[in-house]
Amino acid sequence: MLALIAGVLLYFFWYQNPHKVVTDGVANLVSARQASYSMGGDVTPSSTSTSGPSKTTYRVNLQYANQVAGGNGEVTMDLPQVGQIIVKAEIYVDREAMYFRVENVKDAYDKYIDAMVDRMLQQRSNYSSMTDEEKNAERSKMRDYYHKLLEKGSMATIKKIDGKWVKMTQDEMLKMSSNRTTTKQCTEVVDSMYDTKARNEIAAVLRKHGDVFTVEKLNKPALDNGAVGYKVTVASPSSHEARSLSRDLGNTRVGELLRRCSDATSTRVTTRQNGRTIKTERRSAISGPDLSQTDLELWVSPFSHDVKRIVMKPTSQSSQQPVTINVNDTKVDLRKPSDSIPYSELMQGSSVSKDNDDDTSLTTTGEA
C-alpha cells in the first residue's frame, strides 16, 4: 500500500511536474525516430503595397520516418492587378539525393505577364481612341514578345520542370558549389541527423540542461488530444545556463560537425573607428533564432511527454501573427519518386537556352 501511494505521489509531483514535462518533450522531439509537422496561416502586410501581395496564405506539411523525409506545401498570393496565384511544391530527401517538384509556376508567370501587358497598354496616350480589335491585336503582340524573352531565360527551365520531379544528388551539390570542401562539411551535418545515436546524444544533453527553460502552466483548456499548454521562456544566450548548454552541445558529434561547417562559412569582419581598427572577428554565416526573444508556447501530453503543438512569435514584433506548428497530426507520401529529371541535365538545358541569341524585337503601334 505504501509503495502504491509513493508511486502515485511520484507520478503527480515528479513525472507531471511542468518543468519535466517540457524538458522531456523537447528532448523527445529531437530523438523521435519518426514525426510529422504541419503549419499554415495567413500573412497580411501591415502596410498596403501596389506591387506586393495583399494577402498570402500558406500551408506546409513535413514528415520523416525510416531515414527519409518529405514534405509538401502550397502558397496562395492575392496580387493587386494580377489576381490570385497558387504555387505548389513537394520535396523528398534520403541519404543519397534530394528530389523536388513545383507546380503552377508557368501559370503564375502567364498571369503576371497578362497583367503587365494590360497595364502597359492602358498607360498609352492613345489607348482610349483604339478600337477593341486594335487593343486585342496589340495585346497579343506584346504577350508574344515577353513570352519569347522569357523563353530565352527562366521560362525554358520552368516549362521543363513544372509538375515534374527533379533529382539532385550529393555529388551534384558538390559540383555546383564554389567551395566543395565547405559544402561537404555542411552536408555531413545533415547526414549525421539520420543517426539515431547522434540524436539521442543531443536529447541527453537537453535533459541535462533543463534549467535553460523557465516553465509556467497556461490557464487554457487542454487540446482535444489531451495536450496541456505551457509558456516557456528560454534563457538568454549570455546566461550561465545557456552557455553551459551550448558548450555541451558543441561536444556532441552533431555539434562538432556543425562547428566545422560554421567555421568554413564564416567571414572576417573588421570594425573601424576614425580610420583605426578597433577589432577583427570571424562571424559565422550560420545563426539560429534567439529563442530568448520569442514568445513560446509548448503543448505537451502530460502522459507521454510528447509535444503536440508549438506556438512561436517574436516578442519584438507585436503585430506579427504567431506561427503554429502541429506535431504528428498529418501524413506525407514518403515514396521515392520513380521518374525524375537529373539536376545536371536541367542545368545543361538552362545554359543552352541562354546561348540562344535569336533576335526578339517588339514593334508596337501608337504612342508609348
Structure description:
- The structure is a single chain.
- The protein is an alpha+beta fold and 368 residues long.
- 39% of the residues lie in helices and 28% in strands.
- It contains eleven helices and 14 strands.
- The chain has helices spanning 2-15, 18-31, 105-122, 132-152, 154-161, 170-176, 180-192, 196-208, 240-250, 253-265, 343-355, and strands at 35-43, 55-65, 68-79, 83-93, 97-103, 166-169, 213-217, 228-234, 267-273, 276-283, 294-300, 307-314, 323-327, 341-342.
- Strands 7-8-11-12-13-1-2-3-4-5-6-14 form a twelve-stranded mixed beta sheet. It has a two-stranded antiparallel ribbon with strand order 9-10.
- β9 and β10 (276-283) form a beta hairpin.
- α2 (18-31) packs antiparallel against α8 and α7 packs antiparallel against α10.
- The longest helix is centred in the middle third of the chain and has 21 residues, at 132-152.
- The termini are far apart.
- 14% of the residues are buried.
